[in-house]
Write a structure and sequence with these properties.
Structural class: alpha+beta
Low-confidence stretches: none
Number of strands: 8
Shape: globular
Largest sheet: 8 strands, mixed
Distance between the termini: 27 Å
Strand content: 35-45%
Helix content: 10-25%
Number of helices: 2
Radius of gyration: 15 Å
């Protein structure tokens, strides 16, 4: 029997404050040089919200409670070659967190900045832009690169 098709599960987080979203400048993989949202792949056995809480802590050292995260959208995405894969990504939003954001993975990200939702950087990843557009437009689902 042929191996079943596999999807990667992911989480991306709109960490919001005063009409601004926290974004990271990626340094690695296919989205190097582009601003993106805090997040990444889910780990085996994690719930969506557990993965979001973990990624936020690992990447920007903020404390977020699962109850303070709201799933606002889902993206179905194919990443570009040569590392191409398909993923289902849950987009979360929160305005409740504790701590001050700090870059914790300097090998992966080179800048951390708050951007007004109406003035996003020109060098933004396609999936981060789509996730933010979904949030603004109250869209619950999008497909990217199909």
């Amino acid at each position: 029997m042929a191996e079943r098709f596999k999807l990667v599960g992911g989480v991306f987080n709109l960490i919001l404050r005063d009409g601004k979203v926290l974004m990271e400048l990626r340094k690695n993989k296919f989205d190097a040089g582009l601003y993106s949202l805090v997040g990444g792949c889910m780990e085996d056995g994690e719930t969506v919200k557990q993965a979001a809480v973990r990624e936020i802590k690992e990447e920007v050292n903020l404390e977020v409670r699962e109850d303070d995260l709201k799933i606002i959208s889902v993206l179905h995405r194919i990443t570009p070659a040569p590392d191409s894969w398909q993923s289902i990504e849950f987009i979360m939003a929160t305005e409740k967190f504790s701590g001050n954001p700090a870059l914790m993975e300097n090998d992966v990200c080179g800048d951390l900045r708050w951007f007004p939702l109406t003035e996003l950087p020109k060098n933004i990843s396609l999936y981060a832009k789509q996730a933010i557009d979904n949030y603004i437009n109250n869209e619950s689902f999008s497909e990217i690169n199909f």
